Amino acid sequence: MARAVIALGSNLGDRAGHLHRAVESLKCLPGTRVLAVSSFIETAPVDVPPAYQDLSFLNGALILETALEPEALLDELNRLEAEAGRVRAERNGPRPLDLDIILYEGVRVQSARLTLPHPRAHLRDFVLRPLAELGISREGVCCNRLPEKR
After folding, report:
1. Which of 47, 55, 100, 142 has its C-alpha lying 20 to 30 A from 92's C-alpha?
2. Quick one: which of 55, 133, 137, 69 has its CA closest to 104?
3. Measured between alpha carbons, how far is 36 from 41 in angstroms, rounded to an integer?
4. Ordered DSSP codes for 101-134
5. DSSP run (H or E) holding 34
C-alpha cells in the first residue's frame, strides 16, 4: 500500500456536489482508503482560455492509501472524471470534475500520460492551499514527501 495525494477541482455545475461525490467514489476504489480530506476553497481560474475566465473553481485535496499502481490510479481518476461529465474537447476548458495525482509515495515517473510528482503543483496556489491544510508543504510537493502517517 502506498499513499498518494490527489487534487480535486470543479468549475461547472454543482461544484461542491461533484467534489463530494468524487471523495465518496475514491473511498470505493479497490484496495483504497481515504485518509484525509481538505476543505474546499473558491479559487480564480489559472491557465484557462479567455472565454472561461469567469468560471471560478472549487478546489481541494486528499490523501489516500492505495494498492493501485500510479497508472491504474490515473485510469480510475479519468473514469471518475468521465462519469461526472468531463469532456476533453479543449485544453484547460471547463470541467465538472478535475482529479490530478500530485504525489505518489516513493514514485518518480515521467511518461506521456503521467509525471510524478506533478510538475506544476508547487507553482499553483489552488493546489498548495489545500495541501497545506493536510500538512504538505511546497517542499514536500517538490520532493515527493508526504507528512508522517496520522
Report:
1. 142
2. 69
3. 16
4. EEEETT--EE-SS-EES-TTGGG-HHHHHHHHHT
5. strand 32-37
CA 88 – CA 121 distance, rounded (Å): 20
Show which residues are catalytic. 86, 95, 98, 100
Three cell numbers written together for 104: 505518489
One digit per residue, pLDDT tens: the chain, 150 residues?
A: 999 999 999 999 999 999 999 999 999 999 999 999 999 999 988 888 777 788 899 999 999 999 999 999 999 999 999 999 888 777 766 889 999 999 999 899 999 999 998 888 888 889 999 999 999 988 888 777 888 765
CA–CA distance from 43 to each of 56, 83, 108, 130 (Å)?
A: 6, 24, 28, 11
Backbone angles phi and psi of 26, in degrees to 5: -65, -35
Give, in order, the Cα–Cα distances in Å from 68 to each of 38, 50, 64, 101, 139. 22, 37, 11, 12, 25
